[in-house]
Every structure is written in structure tokens, then in C-alpha cells.
Write a structure and sequence with these properties.
Layout (H helix, E strand, L loop, with lengths): L42 H31 L13 H13 L2 H10 L10 H6 L4 H28 L9 E2 L7 E2 L1 H23 L15 H45 L10 H5 L6 H30 L11 H9 L30 H14 L1 H9 L10 H21 L5 H16 L1 H9 L5 H12 L17 H12 L3 H24 L7 H6 L24 H6 L4 H7 L4 H6 L5 H21 L9 H33 L1 H20 L30 H12 L11 E3 L13 E4 L5 H13 L2
Family: Belongs to the NDC1 family.
Main location: nucleus
Subcellular location: Nucleus membrane; Nucleus, Nuclear pore complex
């Protein structure tokens, strides 16, 4: 039984028809002049207030974690039980250690971003160390290491009653002042720890913060979960850093010391190095233990600062309710491009080579979309306020129109990006037009092959001309952009009845369309036809099929100097350094996964709730548009997931099962994440007849359908009695038995779902996708 057949609910009898009344009739024609209200506070300003308050909590938690790390670092098992009572000495020097985390906190605020394009290869990640911004990261860690070093040696010397540990020189008997090797070794170690942390910061891209998949988690739960992971990472980093440094120190200590004594140190300096020549501190077990504990202090304090910053910077917030106009405040957040903490992230210091960052990828928009998804799920009062926010007789649209428009814009942009396999629509147009110009112009092709260094004059002229140049459009420009009558008839014939008669109708319609297009093209002078159109046309004037979407393998992989270096590296080593990482191919296809999922959730929740909470019916007119967007995006994601899955199987066969499993996990997380969405304690879609959300645990429904299917199925289930109002059919008075089934008495189409979309929606109704 078709879900789009006429039902008793599709059209009420004329006697029972509700009165047709404009929305403006509900309001009085004359209103008293209201006093000028204060302008609604912007969403970005409210977010900045919340983030500033979170900064205070962030610093307090970081100070507490630094105190605990210093307490662990100065613990001496030889001084038991007195080592258990080091609270007061640690409290005295803990502020100095806390100051060591402030440079890192300032660095994170200056360089924070939420969605940075991944780099293609491991070599590209290592090449970031050659950037001038890496020097800033190193000096930031070096400043923190200097403060940690001072706090540790002074606190440890005070607690263990060993004042020589905190001095660079010490005096023994009648000898001259001797250089303290313990202090020198710890200083060199902590400089190496700062360099080690810099490499970790760059390779792991610590400037980027990630939103949690489960957006219902509280701040304490997120802190506990991240602390467990980062604690193990801190211990592992401590072991690696100390092992590398200690091995190098043992090997190079004697040659370096001899070289310094012979070539640089004169008679005035040799007496001060007598202790280092007589005793080798590299074999001291006590010094090795102090090296481990002091390095652990560095990594624990830095990891605590990272954890606190990432949790407080990505925790969802609900701030629009504090504005005089919550709907307009939320709408301003959906359109906002304000960055975090009043920092301009578009400056060159925060860019990667070869990647241009847009403001929408690291702005406060994500908080607005998260808040929209949560409030449309849990707050019926806010949903009703969105539906009731209409402006009759005004050019300004209501809240529902604006919010649905912003959500559909996000879905449409990401749909085109998924079609282009990671490229935005603007990048696709520019790249295609530049490729066509390069291949079609023999002069430019010859100039490009002459040498890699064009003249400055030609470069300037090319920039000035390309700024005002309109991209060339290939193909027949007279083909209508919207599907016409012949296209709809052909689609209906193919999808409805695959009989011989239907095939005849299809072939007749196709031949009619082809002949019409060839006739139109024949009237156009050849000089006005583009090269793509003339080359793609066959001998009979038929147009060649359109080019398929870009395959994930076609994404640019190794560029520039990497391409030249890769030819000199053996194949066994090339895979680990120059092979394209899965995050680049998979993550670039859905960079705004979080906002897209939240937009899908918000549209589905509002549409389902509109049946019982929308007094004016402002949302029902957009149901066909929303369902069509869901179905089209779902089809594109299914094709993309299939291609990436095949790519994962290929890498699994060539490089091993672990690599294939890594690829499959990334595909499920990134592409499947758009389909499944973040987990919530409440089912993201579906509203009961009373308007209350369906409470359902994620653990009780392990085989939950995808988010797009779930949203479309929820809307179709909620509006099942009224689906016939959206069906598409041809209005004809007589249907004669002709091959095309067309006469002059067919006078129009009724607006609704396209036939292909209606067929996919019918599958969702019958089988759930």
C-alpha cells in the first residue's frame, strides 16, 4: 500500500473545511506604540561571557592538578614517613609551577581551532616543525620548563634537606667552587623535554579541540575520561624522553667534556670542573630517579592544562535563553563567524601550508548548532516559541523560516562537498575552470611548460585578469537547469512500470529530448558554443553523459617537494613517511560533520513537533524540501561510504588487516558519524502524539538506523495520514493511447515530491531504509 495514496485525511469535505484566514487576522489592525526595547544581545557576546567564566574554573583546576603533580614529583621513598607530610613545602612552591602552565594556556587561546584540514602525509606533518610558528611553540614550552625546573629543584631540595640540589655551584673544603652536575643535567634534560613536547604538540595538532560524540556528558565526566587517557600518555612521554636523553648523555658526556676542557676551558675554568671529571653523574641512580620525577612533573602539568582547556572550550552551552529575544540570539549564533576568545584565527600564523581556513570551521557556530539540537529535543517551550515567532506583513521572515534556511544551507553545502570528495563548490568551480583554461589555451600551456618561474609582469596581469573573469561553463547552455516535462515523464515511466510499453515510452521521450537539444544546438553559431559542448557531442548531436563524481583516490596526495623526495626513498620506507594517511582522505569529505548532524537533528525534531505545537502551520510547507534534502544527502553519503569502504578493503589487502581496520573505523566515525550522529540519552528523532520526546537509551537500541534515515522515518511516521497532500501527479482530462501519452489537454503538474524522491521515501516507510 502506497503511503502517498489519497486518504480520508488528504482533503476534508467542503462542509468541514476550516475557515481560510490569514495569520495577520489574529492580530489587531492598530497597536499601541511600544517603547523602544533594548537590542537583543548577540550570541557571540554571551558565549564570550560563558567562556571567560570557564577560564577561571580552568585555571583553578590546572593549579590544583599542578599541586598534585609537584607533590608526586618530590616524593622520596627514602624519607618515609616524612615524605608523606610535604604538603606545606609543596604549597609554598606550587604557585611557581602553576606559572609554568600559563604560557601554554595563552598559546592554546591564540591558536585554538575546531576543524582544521588534516595533512596528507607524515612527512607533511614533520615539515610543520620547519614553520616559524614552531619556534613560538618551543619557546612557550621552554618558558614553562624553566619555571617547572626552578619549582622542582627548590621544593625537592627544601623537602629533602639537600640545598646543593638548587645551586649551580657548591663548595667542598679547600677546593674551588665546583659546577653542580646534577643541576646542569636536570637543566639540559628539561630543555630536551621542552623540545620533545614541541614535537608532540605539532604532530598531534594540539591547537585543535574536538567536540565529544556524546554531547550529554557533563564536565566532570569528560574531565575524568580525558584524564585517564592523558595520564597514560604523560607516563609514556616521560619514559621516552628520559630514555632518549639519558642514552645520549651517557654516550656524549665524556667526549664533549674532553673537547670543552681542551679547546675552550682555560686554566681558570678547569678547577671548577674537577668534580665532573672525577665523578660521573650519569651513573647515579638517585639522579636518574630525580630526572624521571621532574620530567613527570612537566608532562603531568602540561597534560592537565591541555585537558582542562579542551573540556571547557568544547562543552555545549545554552546561552540564548538569557537574551531578550532568544530566537534572534540563536539565529545570530547560527550565522556567526566570531572566533574563540576574541582571537582572529584567519591570520597567517594559524594557517597550514596548502590549507585555507574559513571562519565557519573554527567559530562559535558549533555551540549554536549544538544548542539548537538540544533545545529542539528537550524544550517544548522553545519549540513553540520558534513556531509562534511569525512576522505578518513584514519583509522579515519568522524564526522557523530563518532557522530552517540556515540548517538546509549547511546540509546543501556539505552535500556538494561530499560529491566533490572533500572540495567545496567554489574550489571545484575554480579548479575545473583553471584546468580547462590550461588545456584549451596553447599559449598558456607552452608558457607553463617553458619553466617554473614566470615573470612578475605576467603574474600580475594574470592575477588582475583572473579576478574579473567569470568561470567558463561547458556543455549546452540552453539546457534548462530544472527538470522539464520530458524528464519527469521519463523518470516516472522508468520507476513505475518496467514493462515493454514503458521502455518504448522511455526511448521515445529520450529521442524527443535528444532531437530537441540537437535542434537547439544547431541554431547556435559554433563560435558561441564552448569547447566542452562541441567535443562531448556525438555525431548525432547527442550529449555525452556527465562526468561522475570525484573518486577518493583522485584527491591530491603528495605535492611539491614531497613528490620529488618520494622517488629517492625506498619503497619499504616510503609507505610510512610519504603514504597518504586515512584521516586526509576520509576527514576532508565531511569537515563539518558536527554542524551537519546537529542541523539534521534540529530539522527533524522541529518538523515532528510541528504537528501538535505549531499553531500557524508554518513548518508543514517545508516538509517536502526537508525530506528531499535528507534523501539526496543520504544517497550521496551511501555512495561515498561505499567507495571509501572499497578503498579500506584495498588497503587492508595490501598493507595488512590492522591498516584496513583503521580505515574502516575512520569511515564509520566520519562518514557514518554524519549518518548516525552523536549519541544522546534521548532518541534524537521522533515525538509522541503528546509532543513529548521519546525516552530511549542508546544501549537498548544497538542496531539504531542512521540519523538521516531516522529523521526521515520519524517525519514520515508522524505525518503518515497526510502524506497524500505532498504527492506528485499530472493533471489531464483525457489520457489517449499514444506512445508519449501527451495531448493538449494536459495542463500542468501539481507541486510535490519528485518521483525518484517519492520512491525512496516509500522504501523508508515500508522497510525503514
Amino acid at each position: 500500500m502506497s503511503a502517498f495514496r489519497p486518504t480520508p485525511y488528504s482533503g476534508p469535505p467542503p462542509s468541514q473545511a476550516p475557515p481560510v484566514q490569514s495569520v495577520s487576522d489574529h492580530f489587531p489592525s492598530t497597536r499601541p506604540v511600544a517603547s523602544s526595547a533594548a537590542p537583543a544581545q548577540g550570541y557571540a557576546a554571551l558565549c564570550k561571557v560563558v567562556l571567560s567564566r570557564r577560564t577561571r574554573n580552568n585555571l583553578m583546576l590546572t593549579a590544583a592538578a599542578t599541586y598534585v603533580a609537584l607533590l608526586v614529583a618530590v616524593f622520596d621513598p627514602r624519607k618515609l614517613p616524612g615524605s608523606l607530610l610535604n604538603f606545606l613545602p609543596v604549597l609554598l612552591f606550587a604557585p611557581i609551577a602553576f606559572l609554568g602552565t600559563l604560557p601554554l594556556f595563552v598559546l592554546r587561546k591564540q591558536r585554538v581551532t575546531t576543524a582544521r584540514p588534516p595533512l596528507p602525509t607524515r612527512f607533511a606533518q614533520l615539515a610543520q616543525l620547519n614553520d616559524h610558528s614552531s619556534a613560538q611553540i618551543f619557546f612557550t614550552h621552554l618558558a614553562g620548563a624553566a619555571l617547572f625546573h626552578a619549582a622542582y629543584v627548590w621544593c625537592s631540595g627544601y623537602a629533602s634537606k639537600d640545598p646543593q640540589l638548587g645551586l649551580f655551584f657548591f663548595h667542598e673544603g679547600r677546593d674551588a667552587w665546583q659546577l653542580n652536575e646534577r643541576r646542569v643535567l636536570l637543566g639540559l634534560l628539561h630543555c630536551f623535554v621542552a623540545a620533545f613536547a614541541t614535537v608532540q604538540y605539532v604532530l598531534e595538532d594540539r591547537s585543535q579541540v574536538h567536540f565529544e560524540e556524546d554531547i550529554s556528558l557533563t564536565i566532570p565526566a569528560r574531565l575524568a575520561a580525558k584524564a585517564k587517557v592523558r595520564l597514560r600518555a604523560a607516563v609514556r612521554s616521560t619514559g621516552l624522553a628520559v630514555a632518549f636523553f639519558w642514552s645520549a648523555y651517557v654516550v656524549t658526556r665524556r667526549p664533549v667534556l674532553r673537547f670543552v676542557l681542551v679547546n675552550f676551558a682555560g686554566s681558570w675554568a678547569r678547577p671548577h670542573l674537577y668534580s665532573m671529571m672525577r665523578h660521573n653523574g650519569a651513573y647515579s641512580v638517585t639522579l636518574a630517579a630525580r630526572a624521571l620525577s621532574s620530567s613527570l612533573l612537566h608532562f603531568l602539568a602540561w597534560e592537565a592544562a591541555h585537558v582542562c582547556f579542551e573540556v571547557y572550550a568544547t562543552q555545549p552551552m545554552s546561552v540564548s535563553q538569557f537574551s531578550p529575544n532568544p530566537n534572534q540570539c540563536l539565529l545570530s549564533g547560527l550565522r556567526s563567524s566570531e572566533p574563540y576568545y576574541q582571537v582572529d584565527l584567519s591570520r597567517p600564523a594559524t594557517r597550514r601550508r596548502g590549507h585555507s581556513l574559513t571562519g565557519s570551521l573554527h567559530s562559535l557556530q558549533q555551540f549554536a548548532y549544538l544548542e539548537l539540537a538540544i533545545l529542539t529535543l528537550t524544550d517544548s517551550t522553545r519549540r513553540q516559541a520558534i513556531f509562534k515567532d511569525v512576522k505578518p506583513g513584514s519583509s522579515i521572515r519568522g524564526a522557523w523560516s530563518e532557522i530552517s534556511r540556515e540548517c538546509l544551507l549547511v546540509i546543501g553545502t556539505e552535500l556538494q562537498r561530499a560529491k566533490g570528495r572533500g572540495k567545496s563548490p567554489c574550489e571545484l568551480v575554480l579548479s575545473s575552470s583553471s584546468n580547462r583554461r590550461a588545456h584549451s589555451d596553447p599559449i598558456r600551456r607552452a608558457a607553463s611548460s617553458a619553466g617554473p618561474y614566470p615573470s612578475p609582469v605576467s603574474q600580475t596581469m594574470e592575477q588582475q585578469s583572473s579576478a574579473n573573469r567569470v568561470p567558463v561553463k561547458t556543455g549546452n547552455v540552453f539546457v534548462p537547469t530544472k527538470s522539464g516535462l520530458f524528464d519527469k515523464l521519463a523518470t516516472a515511466a522508468v520507476s513505475s512500470a518496467p514493462s515493454p510499453a514503458a521502455q518504448k515510452v522511455t526511448s521515445a521521450v529520450s529521442s524527443a529530448v535528444a532531437s530537441t537539444q540537437s535542434a537547439i544546438s544547431a541554431r547556435v553559431p559554433s563560435i558561441l558554443q564552448s569547447g566542452g559542448a562541441s567535443s562531448s557531442s556525438g555525431p548525432n548531436g547527442s550529449q555525452a553523459p556527465a562526468a561522475p563524481a570525484m573518486h577518493p583516490e583522485d584527491v591530491p596526495q603528495v605535492l611539491g617537494v614531497e613528490q620529488r623526495l618520494a622517488t629517492w626513498v625506498p619503497a619499504a620506507r616510503r609507505a610510512k613517511v610519504f603514504a597518504v594517511v586515512p584521516e586526509y582522505k576520509v576527514g576532508s569529505c565531511v569537515p563539518r560533520r558536527r554542524e551537519t548532524v546537529c542541523a539534521i537533528q534540529a530539522l527533524a525534531n522541529l518538523t515532528c513537533a510541528s504537528l501538535h505545537e505549531d499553531p500557524y502551520g508554518v513548518a508543514q510547507r517545508d516538509i517536502p524540501k526537508i525530506l528531499e534534502a535528507f534523501v539526496r544527502y543520504l544517497a550521496v553519503l551511501e555512495v561515498l561510504q561505499g567507495e571509501l569502504g572499497a578503498l579500506a578493503e584495498k588497503h587492508g589487502r595490501e598493507e595488512g588487516s590492522e591498516v584496513g581496520q583503521r580505515w574502516r573505523g575512520l569511515v564509520e566515525k566520519e562518514v557514518g558519524g554524519v549518518q548516525e550522529g552523536p549519541s544522546l540519552s534521548l532518541l534524537p528523532f521522533g515525538v509522541l502524539a503528546t509532543g513529548a520526546p521519546i525516552v530511549k537509551s542508546a544501549e537498548t537500541d544497538p542496531s539504531s538506523t542512521t540519523a538521516l534515515r531516522q529523521g526521515a522515518k520519524a517525519i514520515l511516521t508522524e505525518f503518515a495520514p497526510y502524506l497524500s497532500e505532498f504527492r506528485t501527479y499530472l493533471l489531464c482530462t483525457v489520457r489517449p493511447p499514444s506512445p508519449l501519452g501527451l495531448t493538449d489537454q494536459c495542463f500542468g503538474w501539481r507541486a510535490g515530491f519528485p518521483t525518484a524522491i517519492a520512491a525512496q521515501l516509500q522504501v523508508l516507510v515500508d522497510w525503514g531504509g
